[in-house]
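Can you give me the bound-state structure? Components:
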Amino acid sequence: MSDTTFAPTYGPVAIPVRELLPWAIFAGLMLMLMIYFVGAEEGATSLIRGTMVHEFVHDGRHLLGFPCH
Amino acid sequence: MVGKLLLRGMLVGLVAGILAFAFARVYGEPQVDKAIAFEEQQAQAAGEAPEPEMVSRATQAGIGLATGVLVYGAALGGLFSLVFAYAYGRLGSLGPRGTSALLALLGFLAVIVVPSLKYPANPPAVGNPETIAYRTELFFIMIVISIAAMVAAVGLAQRLWSRLGAWNASIVAGLAFIVVFALVKAALPDINEVPENFSATVLWQFRVASLGIQLVLWTVVGLGFGAVVERVVAVRDQRGSARRYA
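Here's the bound-state model for the whole set.
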């Protein structure tokens, strides 16, 4: 590590798509589910009964710009 | 490599969420409170029974707001890291910090600023509960179109790069993006459900606060992510080029 410089003379190396794809699909889905629960659950659509999730994240949902009520 | 980026992205997003929560507490909550006071006043004037409070206001404005913003921040940071993993090395010769900052700027424009010009954030008391499905649908359609237009604009800039140079290629792509947005803005239906005597000041300040929260999130993610991945990315680049030139 001691020979690592931060004024590199080599160029950026892209990550191959086949290495990225499984991450993009599984992690991407999980992360979007997180945003869904903050932004839309018990609003237009509902996976869990009631309105507890909606009420709990209510202020965040408004302030983050999601349609609410 | 992608796992390392993802973990760092989510952590930076969490930090961004903490700062955004502080911002939201100071600048956002007073507007939410005023909007709720208006809502209650309207209900009272109409002779309606007050809505039962399932979650107290203190909880909503405290742990509830923190949960919402932190989960959102971590998810944003994670998604950002995945986009970075694809874009790095594919956007000219930009290094990790430059790529991260550029992606955050383009992302903030495409995901937040442009969609909110059409469908801005609304405080409580604004919005008819019966149209929530319709409004949510349009909101997400607008974001998807805006992201697609941004991806297309970046592709266009890259294609024109060798012929026009970086500056002119970017200006042409930017103009193309604006034209697409103008057409979409005209084509999609407007939504205006602001009650007649709702305070214009509260509405304005709420929307500025909402945009400010997003600006804090995207700035911290864009600048912070580049800084924390610089070393891992540099080590990998060095190995990659060593292999290539061996």
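A couple of observations. The radius of gyration of chain A is 20 Å. The mean pLDDT of chain A is 86.
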